[in-house]
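Homework-ish question, so no full write-ups if that breaks the rules, but can someone show me the predicted structure for this set?
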Amino acid sequence: MFGLLLPFSEKLSEEDKKTYEGYYCGLCHQLREQFGKKSSLILQYDCVFLALLRNGLYEKEESFEKTFCGHKLRKVNVCSEEGLRYAADMNLLLAYQNYRDRVHDGQRRSITLRAAESAVKGLSSEYAVIAAKYPRQAKAVAEYVEKLEAYEDRAADLKEKAEYTPDIPAKMTGDMLAEILVEKEDEYAEYLRRIGRGLGAFIYLADAFTDIEKDLKTGDYNPYLPVLSEEGFAERIKDYLTIIAGRTEEAFEMLPLFRHREILRNILYSGMWTAFEKSYRKDWNKGEKP
Amino acid sequence: MRDPYQVLGVSPGATDDELKSAYRKLSAKYHPDNNVNNPNKAEAEERFKEVQAAYDSIIKMRHNGGNAGYQHQSGSSDYTGRSNGYQYQNYGNNVNFSTVIAYLNGRSYAAAMIELMKMPESARNGMWYYLKGHANWGLHNTMAAMDDLYRACQLEPGNAAFRREYETLRQGNAYGGGTNGYAGRSEQYGRSELRTSPLCGLGSCLSDFLCEILPWVFCCL
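A: Not a homework solution, just the prediction itself:
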């Protein structure tokens, strides 16, 4: 489900591109250091976003270094910074639960997904350590997965328009992400929760839209099934997402944040729409069935 | 509380950036972590809280607390006046929305929703959907709110006020209209429709291509 919070790199300045790479590769290095080499497979864009947001807020010291990457086969910019530790911890938390989510879905899993899953399976004791260190966040994610599963099981039987309530799972996702964004209950917690709620809702709803084609084939639950055939359906979903994104961005602008602001704005105004836009522009969304 | 602008040492006309900059400076100065050895640390903590509260109140006022897009956009939080101005059909029963409206004005959205759901089918006209849309909006049920407002427009096609609100919200302009709204600003960034790796353009495309296809081969290096 995750992996939407990436930038539209064409529109980033050269410097911001390097900074983004610094955090992306920095997170990878942090994961490998904390959880072993295979853990770089579980890296999520959303946690890169988290690291950038955290550093932007607390303005901790960053140090950038160019290192050769055996994965990208070239030198990459790697950032070392204290917030990456939290981002890596949350990355594991989310990946661990994400793996549980996939198993339940029973979808056909790609090679990369299966590799990531096997990487995570071997990390249960590390997961336990993180869960103990951040009980509020761990609880939020575990409860989210349970509640979402239960909701989707119930909702799968309800194909009537009257039961069309994608706001419910969207808000569940928002509540969960709100807790992830809040590392500690400080002066920024309230703003971060607002951002988290908005982002979570956006992520869930955009992701569900891009999953329509796949879910129709596999018969998996999709919140939009009751309204697929309605006129202007895709456009209405885009409208909803625009409103939610607007609300999220508004909350973001309330933060007294300067550092990394342009990268974060790029993600919130543009980058996070990438997967949705690709899906939206497919012909079948314009009235023809897939 | 002292005037928040005075607490932060900025004028009411200060830009958001000036405000944020002032906040960061003062916040760092009085932060408990930075005053551990300060004999006056209790006073520093008081000032820290004061600075917080001042920033919080100004920023929320400027950004409408991030809430209630409907009310802000229309410039009036008084539902009573507007509902009286509408020519909505009375379905024979004395449908009284005043309780719902009072709840909405008081931002008790859940209570408003309960009142609305108590009403019989015969009462569920355009105005009912319009008010339900407002209740859902307050409860952050964005999709339900939009659906309700859309339904209100369908039931009363001649109602220009309903349609105007729907159109405004549609364009993501609840938080400021035109090019300053989310939709407008987003357009300035543009959107990618390709699944481009965010690191594309920084190195060879071949390595990025391999990265997508064979991640586990290299990760053990």
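Now go work out the reasoning yourself. Hint: Chain B has a mean pLDDT of 75.
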